[in-house]
Amino acid sequence: MENLNYGVIGNCRSAALVSKEGSIDWFCFPDFDSPSIFSRLLDIDKGGHFSFVVSDDYTIKQQYVGLTNILMTTYEAEEGAFLVFDYMPHYTTTERKSYLPPEIHRYMRIIRGKPRLRIEYQPRMNYAREDVNHLKFDEYIKTVSKENEDDKIYLYTSVDFDTVLSGEEFELDNHHFFLLSYNQKLVDVNLKGIHLNYERTKVYWMNWSNRSRQFKQYNDIIMRSMLVLKLMSYQYSGALLAALTTSLPESIGEVRNWDYRFCWMRDASMTIDTLIYLKHPNTAERFIGFVKKILKSRDDSFQIMYGIRGEKTLTEEILPHLSGYENSAPVRIGNAAYNQKQNDSIGYLLDVIYQYYLYAPGTLDEVEEIWEIVKNLVRIVLRDWGKPDQSIWEFRTFSSHFVFSKVMSWVAIDRASKIAALLQKDKYANAWEGAADEIKEDIIKNGWKEEIQCFSQTYDNLDYDSSVLLMQTYGFIEANDERYIKTVKAIKENLLYNGLMFRYKSEDDFGKPTSAFTICTFWLIEALYVIGEKEEAKEIFDEILKHVNHVGLLSEDLDFETKRRLGNFPQAYSHLALINTASLFAEEKTLSQFIRA
Fold it and tell me: Tens-digit pLDDT profile for the chain (597 aa)?
């Protein structure tokens, strides 16, 4: 469990974390945000898991099957060897519909000899709040909650049921399968069907990867990040999750533990921006559909985050019965940040809507519908940009006039003006351009601090903050502007430590941050690159790539000293930043080069 050495499998409906030894230690059923049935990640003793256990004689290796989200774990010893392919089915049917059932397939293939193993099948319902009974039927094992008989799951397997439930060691003498399903299956489950689903799922992910932009350098790490981002999109609504887990601590033994299984407008908009660049406009269109759903009325309020189906109330609750990751309590579900005021959020959203109008506009009625949303969002920004907020960092006990929140308010009005110009709504375009200029003047006047030769965190302090590195990224300031160059150098000097970046060093609700927020290091790399410090940027980038795990995944945070991965995992924010930064150094393949490859 240490250092988050997990692979992830999923099908754009739910996902599971599989340890490098092949144990499923986190899985929510049937959807991303459902209660977990395996949560050993958050409590070793109580959480529950689904493992294949071999003796210490075995060498265990894990990797993805090519450019797919199918995970392959190899168990090898002198007595024998076998493979386990873990995946959640996802493919397109002959009716052009997506097939993504709530189930995990574990396809076990013997390689040689007579390997021996034990099965530990220990589901714990409802975040391990409910014990279970196992009932054997002819075709499956039904596991039922002792508290709620409607809470049940089905395990289909070619292994003897008593062997599975007893956990006794047995000899693997043939290929086998396990299919864990939320629903009772209506078709016969057998090895042939499992293999067919495996091949169909493999083809689906390979086709998706093949449609992506390709690069001469860093292509594998970029593609893995892309596949993770795709996996974290909820097929039924277009929402994108910030992460697949809850309550993995930013620092061991501290209380910065949050539930990230929701859709932040900020994270999702940034991710969509990246996916458009990587030639996946369909995912962007689904997200725009999600936005239309949650803002279907012009009078609807705007939140910084929503549930994956558009839910607005995300009540936070502590689960005291779970000890937490490495005893880092509390374990939380829900997230009270949903009712915070963060003035930066609308900027990302309008930036993506602007790209939608540029590259993938829909029918006239859709364009008109989104135009109404744009006007509503502009009203909110013009009303609120001059007010204090809780910032990109979601401070819980105070608000202030954060410089980056003002910058993103400028982005919101600037992009709205550009959208109006595209639609030939010159009256709106001119008025909003003037409003954007007013916001910009205010930021320059109050945000630039001669004392530190840097844009500060807030209007009324002299603290450094990594977020202002994004000023250039969003077009607020030119890369050759002396104030931006000085800002980049000052922030690097004060927030870079051991090759990693602090978000800020000022005190927040819980004291001073003690770990590096992964995305901030990528922000510094990009900032150094655009001001001409390309060699230094490349050195920092190559160093941070050493901190992805054994299958190329990144978490939210890194420990400054040990470099161990911390925080929720995998983190969409971290992976989209990796893609954006890698693309600075990676030359794109031409079509002919790609064909030859």
Answer: 568 999 999 999 999 999 999 999 999 999 999 999 999 999 999 999 999 999 999 999 999 999 999 999 999 999 999 999 999 999 998 878 899 999 999 999 999 999 999 999 999 999 999 999 999 999 999 999 999 999 999 999 999 999 999 999 999 999 999 999 999 999 999 999 999 999 999 999 999 999 999 999 999 999 999 999 999 999 999 999 999 999 999 999 888 899 999 999 888 888 877 888 888 888 878 888 888 888 776 556 788 899 999 999 999 999 999 999 999 999 999 999 888 888 899 999 898 888 878 876 778 888 888 899 999 999 999 999 999 998 888 787 778 999 999 999 999 999 999 999 999 999 999 999 999 999 999 999 999 999 999 999 999 999 999 999 999 999 999 999 999 999 999 999 999 999 999 999 877 666 677 789 999 999 999 999 999 999 999 999 999 999 999 999 999 999 999 999 999 999 999 999 999 999 999 876 543 333 333
- Measured between alpha carbons, how far is residue 30 from residues 98, 100, 247, 320, 455 in Å? 16, 11, 20, 23, 46
383 lies in which domain range? Answer: 211-596
173 and 240 co-located in one domain = no
Place of tokens 């986190």: 26
Tell me the three-class secondary structure of 89-129, residue by residue.
Answer: CCEECCCCCEECCCEEEEEEEEEEECCEEEEEEECCHHHHC
Q: Do residues 504 and 466 touch, judged by C-beta distance below 8 A? A: yes
Please give the structure tokens belonging to residue 253: 């033994």
List CB contacts of 529: < 8 A, sequence separation 6 or more.
537, 584
Phi, psi of 414 (to 5 degrees): -60, -45
Task: Report pTM.
Answer: 0.93
Q: Give the whole-angstrom CA distance, residue 225 versus residue 217.
A: 14
Instruction: Collapse the DSSP code of 135 into the 3-class scheme (helix H, G, I; strand E, B; otherwise coil) and give the result.
Output: strand
Do residues 461 and 314 both lie within one domain? yes
Tell me which residue of 161, 201, 138, 163 sits closest to 9, measured CA to CA: 201
Domain boundary among 209, 239, 268: 209
What gap in Å lies between CA 14 and CA 32, rounded to an integer? Answer: 4
Statement to judge: residues 306 and 424 lie in one domain: yes
Do residues 313 and 274 touch, judged by C-beta distance below 8 A? no
Residues 6+ apart with CB under 8 A from 453: 486, 487, 490
Instruction: Examine the fold and report which residue of 209, 228, 259 is the final residue of a domain before the chain moves on.
Output: 209
In this structure, the answer to whether residues 387 and 459 fall within a common structural domain is yes
Phi, psi of 15 (to 5 degrees): -155, 160
* First-to-final CA distance of the chain: 37
- What share of residues in the chain are helix, strand, coil (percent, to 5)? 40, 20, 40
